[in-house]
Write a structure and sequence with these properties.
Elements lengths: L1 E6 L3 H12 L4 E7 L2 H11 L3 E5 L7 H11 L3 E6 L4 H9 L4 E4 L4 H12 L4 E2 L1 H9 L7 H9 L6 H8 L3 H15 L4 H10 L4
Parallel strand pairs: 1-2, 1-3, 3-4, 4-5, 5-6
Amino acid sequence: MIRVLVADDEAMIRSALASLLRLEDDIEVVAECADGAEAIAEATRLEPDICLLDLEMPRFDGVQVAEQLNRRVPTRCIVVTRHARPGVLRRALASGVSGFLPKSRGADEVAQVIRRVAAGGRYVDPEIAADALSDERCPLTDRELDVLRAGRRGETTGQIARALSLAPGTVRNHVSAVLGKLQVATRQQAVLLAEERGWI
């Protein structure tokens, strides 16, 4: 039996997917989780073969959950998403995710991907992969991305500087460079664009 944890903050989708997967002879759903923190806790406790993770969840998104679990648990992660942005795919693969597919796929296809990943394979939806190959690369440096991440919830320049052990002036210089490269007027716009493209 393939032991699967399902995590999605939308209760109806989570329970429907879990119910459909339970109809498969070789799949056992061992946990249903409503957010990323619960998924990390339950996966650490149960050590499922596969964690099926929604990308957009509160308290850690699916990629962040996968990053945490890769350091703690011998499980393999599959991320599902309604908005399959190419940048997010690159971030997911860099974090060790073994499968990536849109929520538009049927439960039978999801089950096939679970079997493939459980057997040691990887799966990336072909349409998402094609988009990722044609998508532009991130023009920002690692430090500029760090600044955007540290300020993504509206933190002040001083708070970002303290979080990253930088001088406030250095943070302002990085923000100025980011705005110029992305051709946006505010740091908030830069954060939204970076999130949309999966850079942070």
